[in-house]
Amino acid sequence: MKTGQSFTSPKGEQAWVRQYGSDYWMFPNWELDIKAKQDLLQKAGYSLFVHLIEPLPKGVKLKKRPGLWNWNLNLL
């Protein structure tokens, strides 16, 4: 797999990989923005929030997705 280039999974999802030192980070082609859930997370005990912005490689187009599929799970 080449870093900095998009690839497509067997299910048709696109992503790309970057290498930082000896680590490889994989990024999907949609944003995950949990700022709207920050108050809820703080009430649950989280206190450190980091907002990362990764430059897109050439040819990668982001999908419009809310990225909140796990927030509405009812595990009770």
Description:
This protein is mostly beta strands and 76 residues long. The chain has one domain. It is built from one helix and three strands; from the N terminus they run βββα. It has a three-stranded antiparallel sheet with strand order 1-2-3, with no helix packed on it. The longest helix has 6 residues. It is globular, with a radius of gyration of 15 Å. The N and C termini lie far apart (40 Å). The model has no long low-confidence stretch (mean pLDDT 86).
User: Major sheet, described briefly?
Assistant: 3 strands, antiparallel
Order of helices and strands: EEEH
The multimeric state of the shown protein is single chain
Derived from helix and strand composition plus strand pairing, the structural class reads: mainly beta
Summarize the structure.
With 76 residues, the protein is mostly beta strands. Helices cover 8% and strands 21% of the residues. It has one domain (1-67).
List the helices and strands and how they pair.
Layout: E1 6-8, E2 14-20, E3 23-28, H1 38-43
Antiparallel strand pairs: 1-2, 2-3
List keywords for this structure.
1 helix; 3 strands; mainly beta; globular; three-stranded antiparallel β-sheet; 76 residues
